[in-house]
Task: structure prediction
Amino acid sequence: MSKNIEQKCLAKGVKLTEQRKIIAKIMSESNDHPDVDELYNRVSKIDLKISIATVYRTVKLFEESGILAKHEFKGGKARYEELNEGHHDHLIDVKSGEIIEFVDEEIEKLQEKIADKYGYRLVDHKLELYGVKKKP
Amino acid sequence: MSKNIEQKCLAKGVKLTEQRKIIAKIMSESNDHPDVDELYNRVSKIDLKISIATVYRTVKLFEESGILAKHEFKGGKARYEELNEGHHDHLIDVKSGEIIEFVDEEIEKLQEKIADKYGYRLVDHKLELYGVKKKP
DNA sequence: GTAGATGCAAAGTATTTGCGACAAG
DNA sequence: CTTGTCGCAAATACTTTGCATCTAC
Result:
């Protein structure tokens, strides 16, 4: 099994406060991609004194430490998810808002190839597909 | 040659005001992907009474009319470009901020295929590559 | 003439920050 | 202890909106 968020903090020298532990726990348990508001709501159920500023500061810190990934899908607020080994992209159901994670080796390779063609080394990328469910 | 923005407005029943004509002209002449602030600056050189609210309203209207495309690259503000026939994606130089447009048929097909695999019909997608220039 | 557009300033969102009190290492 | 974090409220950045006036059709 892969390292949990607390272990990652240790490894990165990120101080483990009570608030960060709670945020880490919630994010580990979340399989959706909550925005800061939603995360704040979930966290508040455990620690009702936590401030939204702390949540903002923490997700930013975790993102910079490679612990969380930040997504800016269509429509305003940033959303977060725990970052694990396997990279994946997102297919968003435009009707329901449901998010499907997928991995496609072929597309990853193709992206490298394109960057290379223009003389670039890929450092990051973003692929989002927006679709509607087909009738069966 | 393809329709210009004014012709598109006519076709869509969008009223052509003086301000919209100026914004249309500037966008047609811009080969970069200006954000609203930058667009406002450029437009202000021609019409110094125009309001930023009008610029916001106009880009939104143009986007809804399929005249402009809105991009939300990393780092806050939305950026716009004129929408023409050929679809393309973006490769962003993370050092300089330069944006390279590219077209890749193979990747387009692959995206359709992936959506299909999960039972979706693709209605939109976003592919952004972030890279650094390689040493030659 | 009339529906819709504009300019202005005020209001919204989402996010960040200064500061004194507080807690982790 | 000491450095970094927290909570709070105020500040910022981007974008939207109410309203009275004006303009394209």
Summary: Strands of chain B lie at 68-71, 79-82, 89-93, 99-102, 120-133. The two ends of chain B are 37 Å apart (CA to CA). Residues 97 and 130 of chain B are 10 Å apart (CA to CA).
